[in-house]
Design a protein that fits this description.
The chain is mainly beta. It contains one helix and two strands; from the N terminus they run H-E-E. It has a domain at 20-46. 9% of the residues lie in helices and 26% in strands. It has a two-stranded antiparallel sheet with strand order 1-2.
Length: 46
């Protein structure tokens, strides 16, 4: 970068090395197979 005043150290803005996420369990309520001429399309209701 040409302008070094735009560089911000990561420790000053609180970026963490460990990233996490929460998994949410879902349930498949229904599924259908629609048959076309040459394909089958599956639709799922969650």
């Amino acid at each position: 970068m040409d302008n070094h005043s735009l560089i911000i150290p990561t420790k000053d803005i609180g970026i963490k090395d460990i990233l996490s996420y929460k998994e949410v369990l879902v349930k498949i309520l229904d599924h259908q197979v629609h048959k076309l001429r040459t394909k089958e399309v599956v639709s799922v209701k969650v």
